[in-house]
Design brief:
The structure is a homodimer. By secondary structure, chain A is α/β, with parallel strands linked by helices. Chain A contains nine helices and eleven strands. Chain A is 32% helix and 21% strand. The mean pLDDT of chain A is 96.
C-alpha cells in the first residue's frame, strides 16, 4: 500500500487532474464504479485501478493492475467531494474520423463542463453517430465533463477538430449543416430536415462563431415564447437533436 | 459603511444563505446585476441593496435603500466565488394558485439546484403558464437554483404544493397530466397532445413517484437510441415542453 503523498507514482497520478498533465501522458482519471463499468463495457483501455485502503477490487475489475493507497493519498488524487474510493487510469483514444451514417453534433467553444458532458450524454441517447469538438471547447477529459457524460464518452465517437476545416469534409460527405443562432435564423420546426444533419451549436454567451455560420447550410433557432432571454445550451441542443431524430 | 462581520444586520443577511433563515423571514438573496435587473422588471419587491465598498449604486436601482459594506463583510454574505459586488434582498411571494390557459410543469422531488433552475428557465422560454414544485423538491430560493433560472423565477408563476392533492384540481380544470417514466410508457411523439397539458417530471434517480403516476392521464417516455441509460432531467423536460408547444 502506498502511504506517502510524495511517492512518485502518486505525483504522476495527481498530475492527471490538470489538462497539461493529461496531454503529456495521454491518460486521464475516472472516478467511481458507475463510470468505470461504462469504460469496461467499451473499447477504452483501463491502465490501472487505484483503491482507497478500505476498498477491495470489485469483481468487474478482476485482472486489472490495482494499487491500494492510504486515505490521505486517495484524497490527494480524488477530484470529488465524497469519493467512492475507486479511480481508474484510462488511456485517451485518438481515432481517425470516419463518417458513417447518422447525424453529427458539432460543438463550438462550449465552456461549461456540465454543459459539454450533458451534450455528449444526450448525443449518445439520441443515437447521433459522433460528436466533434471545436478547439475552443472545454477539455473533454476534465473530471466534471466526464461525470456529466454519465459514461457516454465511452460509447459515442468523439473527435477534437478544427471545425471550419472539418465542415468542408462533412458537407462533402453529404451532410446538411444546421447552425443555431438567434438572428437571421429560421424556426427549427419549420426548417426541412434532410437525410443526414450535422447540428452545430456554440458558446454559452457568444453562440456559434460567425465564420462557421457562414459555412452552414441552414441557420435555425428555437422560439422563445416567454420572458427568458435564451435557453441553456445543453437543453437547446437536446431539443434540436430529438427533433432531428423524430 | 458597515465594516464588522459581527454587525447585527450582517448576521441577519448571512442567515439568508440557509433555507431556515429564509423561511423565518420570507426573504432571500439575489447576486449580480443581471438577476437584479430581471427582478426590477418584475412584480417582486426588492427590500434593499448591499454594495461592496468599491461599488456605486447602479442607476437602475435608484430609490432603493442601499448599504455599503467592507470587502470582508461582503464576502461573508456572498455565495459566489467571484462576486460582482451587488446583492439584493428580495421578499418571497406567496400567491394563490390560479389556472389560466397554457401548459403547466409539475416537478416531483428534483434534487439538483442546477437542474431545477434550468427547468424553470426552460418553462419560461417555452411559454408554460406556471411551474408547480412538489414538496420534496430542492428549495427554490437556493442560490444555485436562482442563478440557473437566469432570472426566470421572476417571470413565471411558481407554486410549492402537495402534488398529489393539486393534481386533482389540475385535472378538474381540464388538464391532461403527462407523467414521464421509463416503464409502461408510450413514446412521447406518438402520444396524442390535448388542449392543455400538465407535464409531470421526477427525481434524477427515482423518477416520478408511483402514486403520482397512478393519477396521471398519460405516461410517456423519450426513446434512447444509443447506449446512454437515461437523459438528464432538465434536458428531457426541455424536449417534452417544446414538443408540447410545437
Amino acid at each position: 500500500m502506498i502511504t506517502s503523498i510524495q511517492n512518485n507514482r502518486v505525483k504522476e497520478w495527481r498530475k492527471l487532474s490538470t489538462k497539461k498533465g493529461r496531454l503529456q501522458t495521454d491518460l486521464f482519471l475516472v472516478e467511481g464504479m458507475h463510470l468505470i463499468e461504462e469504460a469496461l463495457k467499451s473499447e477504452w483501455e483501463i491502465k490501472e485501478i487505484i483503491l482507497k485502503e478500505d476498498k477491495v477490487l470489485p469483481t468487474a475489475c478482476t485482472g486489472l493492475p490495482a494499487t491500494s493507497v492510504s486515505n490521505q493519498v486517495f484524497h490527494s488524487i480524488s477530484q470529488t467531494n465524497s469519493p467512492q474510493g475507486i479511480i481508474a487510469i484510462i488511456a485517451m483514444q485518438e481515432q481517425d474520423i470516419t463518417y458513417s451514417n447518422g447525424d453529427l453534433l458539432l460543438i463550438d467553444a462550449v465552456q461549461d463542463p456540465g454543459n459539454l458532458g450533458t451534450m455528449i450524454r444526450t448525443a449518445d441517447a439520441a443515437g447521433f453517430s459522433a460528436v466533434l469538438l471545436g478547439r475552443g471547447t472545454v477539455d473533454l477529459y476534465n473530471d466534471k465533463v466526464i461525470r456529466a457524460t454519465q459514461g457516454s464518452l465511452f460509447h459515442i465517437p468523439l473527435y477534437t477538430v478544427d471545425l471550419l476545416e472539418e465542415m468542408k469534409a462533412i458537407k462533402k460527405a453529404g451532410y446538411s449543416v444546421w447552425a443555431t443562432a438567434l438572428e437571421n435564423a429560421t424556426l427549427y420546426h419549420e426548417t426541412p430536415v434532410g437525410n443526414q444533419t450535422a447540428l452545430l451549436v456554440g458558446n454559452e454567451g457568444a453562440g456559434v462563431d460567425q465564420e462557421l455560420i457562414a459555412e452552414s447550410d441552414q441557420v435555425v433557432h428555437i422560439p422563445i415564447y416567454g420572458k427568458a432571454e435564451s435557453l441553456n445550451v445543453s437543453v437547446a441542443t437536446g431539443i434540436l437533436m430529438y427533433y432531428l431524430k423524430g
